[in-house]
Write a sequence for this structure.
């Protein structure tokens, strides 16, 4: 049996980062879902990439398609430390119609198939396929070693999820040997786990293939008329029927919170409510996901910025800061901040009250604003005294309000609001100049 160090050197990871993530609404109007900000300073894709590096996998391809400029700029700026002379690399694989001049990526399997020639050039023995839009910490070397031990050409990582949430995933059943006996993609009525009628066993969108087997499977799928060119809809169900798929229990490779070893953390932040909730966990007293773990760091692009600063306002009132996160470059003056994440270079002026909110980089919140359960996109500037999160009907009229009561605010929404309610912005042009903001 090979050791883990040898195995990861023979593995190429492919991160599928081409999806829009339409359930995140306007947050993905200008960027792909993996490029969305998360956790005070990161992007969502940083978690999958950091898992690769921390697991010892330094051969990575990132497959992009939908509005990838922001994502590619982030990867170029923050993930350029790989050394070619050590056979380390991060390849960007945008949709480029490599097979013909008619089709972009048609599905997850097609996205890999269109890059097979590039994958073969790297000569991997194993191919690790990852979704680039989930939040979790996982040692992929343990997954790959489990794949080798089980002996099947395909291993699918899985995790129990509540049945009402399982409609968004591939759902499987396994036998006592962890052989997958049934796989259904996004079923309307998800099958329950035999041991728990309230839970379903969901695919995490993480697959390990023997490389040669993957090439054969993709070529066969590409030649199959009517295929969706998708792993979950076509390839995995067919391989399950051939008894060639094993399941890997995520609890065996999860990097756990040092304060609570019982927690197995994995989140699909595919909706505004789920995204807000996962960010709120980061700001809690004992977060379920430990981003302060020096043994398993989350890497990202970091702009050179001064430390965050909390000051009194002109009248001498102090800033109150509870259970919150303020990233570098933030300045908060005489305001109350509770259970909130402030990303890089945010400005909060005097006498504001902000609670349970996610404020992305380079936002300006002028004095006397009140925000409750708000997700504010990058570069927004709020006029003085605006109240968001207290009047559901008004919020839904001005912005986007989710089923869970989270209000999403974007620059486009504020531009429209300035046209429909100009009185809110009467002295807007007299405010302090906006924070200089990078182009990505």
């Amino acid at each position: 049996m090979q050791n883990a160090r040898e195995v990861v050197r023979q593995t190429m990871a492919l991160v599928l980062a081409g999806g829009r993530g339409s359930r995140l609404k306007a947050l993905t109007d200008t960027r792909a879902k993996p490029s969305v900000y998360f956790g005070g300073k990161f992007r969502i894709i940083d978690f999958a990439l950091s898992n690769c590096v921390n697991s010892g996998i330094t051969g990575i391809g990132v497959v992009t398609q939908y509005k990838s400029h922001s994502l590619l700029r982030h990867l170029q700026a923050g993930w350029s430390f790989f050394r070619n002379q050590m056979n380390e690399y991060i390849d960007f694989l945008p949709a480029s119609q490599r097979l013909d001049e008619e089709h972009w990526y048609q599905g997850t399997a097609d996205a890999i198939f269109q890059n097979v020639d590039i994958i073969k050039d790297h000569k991997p023995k194993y191919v690790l396929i990852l979704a680039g839009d989930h939040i979790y910490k996982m040692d992929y070397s343990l997954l790959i070693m489990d794949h080798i031990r089980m002996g099947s050409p395909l291993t699918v990582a899985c995790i129990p999820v509540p049945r009402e949430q399982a409609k968004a995933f591939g759902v499987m059943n396994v036998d006592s040997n962890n052989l997958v006996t049934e796989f259904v993609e996004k079923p309307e009525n998800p099958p329950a786990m035999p041991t728990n009628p309230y839970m379903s066993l969901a695919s995490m969108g993480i697959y390990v293939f023997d490389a040669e087997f993957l090439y054969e499977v993709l070529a066969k799928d590409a030649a199959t008329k009517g295929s969706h060119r998708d792993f979950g809809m076509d390839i995995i169900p067919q391989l399950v029927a051939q008894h060639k798929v094993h399941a890997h229990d995520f609890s065996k490779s999860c990097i756990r919170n040092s304060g609570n070893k019982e927690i197995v953390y994995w989140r699909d932040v595919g909706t505004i409510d789920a995204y807000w909730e996962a960010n709120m966990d980061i700001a809690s007293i004992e977060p379920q996901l430990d981003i302060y773990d020096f043994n398993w760091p989350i890497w990202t692009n970091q702009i050179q910025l001064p430390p965050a600063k909390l000051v009194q306002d002109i009248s001498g009132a102090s800033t109150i800061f509870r259970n919150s996160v303020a990233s570098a470059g933030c300045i908060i003056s005489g305001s109350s901040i509770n259970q909130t994440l402030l990303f890089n270079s945010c400005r909060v002026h005097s006498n504001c009250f902000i609670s349970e909110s996610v404020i992305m980089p380079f936002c300006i919140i002028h004095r006397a604003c009140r925000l409750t359960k708000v997700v504010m996109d990058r570069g927004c500037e709020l006029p003085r005294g605006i109240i968001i999160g207290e009047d559901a009907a008004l919020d839904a009229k001005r912005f986007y309000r989710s089923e869970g009561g989270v209000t999403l605010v974007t620059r486009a929404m504020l531009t429209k609001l300035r046209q429909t309610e100009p009185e809110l912005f009467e002295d807007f042009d007299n405010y302090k100049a906006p924070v200089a903001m990078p182009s990505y």
Notes: The longest strand covers residues 199-210. DSSP finds eleven helices and 29 strands in the chain. The mean pLDDT is 92. Residues 309-425 form a domain with the UDP N-Acetylglucosamine Acyltransferase; domain 1 fold (CATH 2.160.10.10).
